[in-house]
């Protein structure tokens, strides 16, 4: 069913920032394909929920097929799914490595490849990925080698995609957050996490949502890594 109503695919959409991104795009009257391992069905006919592990290439195929079958197109892909494991470098296990690489890298690669192929057909589209400011500015006491290895790769891939598809109507950008107040951080950790930001506090989920919406509505912006991190990437 072809339609001009815009369609966004959001990964890691069941809770936290991903869930808030879904709500924000619905307020803009986008149709949404939301995917996560624990995503639940919804009564909203303009949201298609697809359960699956984004590290599995078959999940990407099912998500893109659902977008096309239900809504006829893909205008925006938000690569929000991510895994962060904070361990000293020498203590990472093979399972840690496989988990982080699977979600952060394979999860980005497979669905982005399929979505961009569809965007090429229509001559327009936007890929926006959520990375981390730890890539640019490591913090002592926050071990983050696997996060930097994977999300740093996505920052680089974002710029590469932006240039490769610049003349084909497809943009690629990333949002690089600091530490965001979300369900993954227990309240008793907030004071310590606040102190890691030059501005003295963590970001809110709405800060990341607003950045995604800005990039999606900015037709002359591509290849941008937008830091939303309370000054972390600038220094201390």
UniProtKB/TrEMBL annotation:
Keywords of the record: Oxidoreductase
Keyword Oxidoreductase recorded: yes
The protein's Enzyme Commission number: 1.-.-.-
EC top class, as a word: oxidoreductase
Secretion signal, residue range per the UniProt entry: none
Keyword Oxidoreductase: yes
Gene Ontology MF terms in the entry: oxidoreductase activity
Family according to the record: Belongs to the short-chain dehydrogenases/reductases (SDR) family.
Official protein name in the record: SDR family oxidoreductase
Lineage: Bacteria, Pseudomonadati, Pseudomonadota, Betaproteobacteria, Burkholderiales
């Amino acid at each position: 069913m072809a339609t001009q109503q815009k369609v966004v695919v959001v990964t890691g959409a069941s809770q936290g920032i991903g869930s808030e991104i879904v709500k924000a795009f619905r307020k803009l009257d986008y149709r949404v394909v939301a995917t996560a391992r624990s995503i639940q069905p919804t009564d909203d006919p303009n949201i298609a929920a697809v359960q699956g592990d984004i590290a599995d290439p078959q999940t990407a195929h099912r998500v893109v097929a659902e977008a096309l079958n239900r809504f006829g197109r893909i205008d925006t892909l938000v690569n929000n799914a991510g895994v962060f494991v904070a361990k000293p470098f020498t203590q990472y296990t093979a399972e840690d490595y496989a988990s982080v690489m699977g979600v952060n890298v394979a999860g980005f690669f497979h669905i982005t490849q399929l979505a961009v192929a569809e965007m090429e057909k229509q001559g327009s589209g936007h890929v926006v990925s959520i990375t981390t400011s730890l890539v640019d500015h490591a913090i002592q006491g926050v071990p983050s080698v696997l996060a930097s290895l994977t999300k740093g790769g996505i920052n680089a891939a974002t710029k590469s995609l932006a240039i490769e598809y610049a003349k084909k109507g497809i943009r690629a950008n990333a949002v690089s957050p600091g530490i965001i107040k979300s369900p993954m951080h227990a309240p008793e950790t907030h004071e310590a996490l606040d102190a890691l930001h030059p501005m003295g506090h963590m970001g809110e989920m709405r800060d990341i949502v607003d950045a995604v919406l800005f990039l999606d509505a900015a037709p002359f912006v591509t290849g941008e890594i937008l830091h939303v991190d309370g000054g972390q990437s600038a220094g201390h």
